[in-house]
Amino acid sequence: METRRRSVVNALVWNAMGLAMMTLVGLIATGSAALGGMVALVNTAIGLMMYVIYERVWAGISWGRNG
After folding, report:
1. pTM of the predicted model over 0.85
2. CA distance linking residue 61 with residue 54, whole number of Å
3. What secondary structure does DSSP assign to 11-67, as a single string?
4. Residue 43 and residue 21: Cα distance in Å, rounded?
5. How far apart are CA 41 and CA 66, in angstroms?
6. pLDDT in tens, 1-53
7. Nearest residue to 43 (alpha-carbon basis) of 11, 14, 16, 19
8. Which residues pair with 2 in a beta bridge?
């Protein structure tokens, strides 16, 4: 079991990483609906890959676990 604090930190770090990636992609792509759609697609693909990697890293960290 994870502590509540670990779960909150995990969620906050994940959201910060997602925000940073979306900001970067948004700065690269500009103004049109087509580019906006591409930003969303790229963000989704990057987010999925990052989420899998992120969860695997957190699975290996023992901090905050009970037992």
Report:
1. no
2. 11
3. HHHHHHHHHHHHHHHHHHS-SSHHHHHHHHHHHHHHHHHHHHHHHHHHHT--TTB--
4. 7
5. 38
6. 788 899 888 888 888 888 888 888 877 877 776 777 677 778 788 888 888 89
7. 19
8. 65
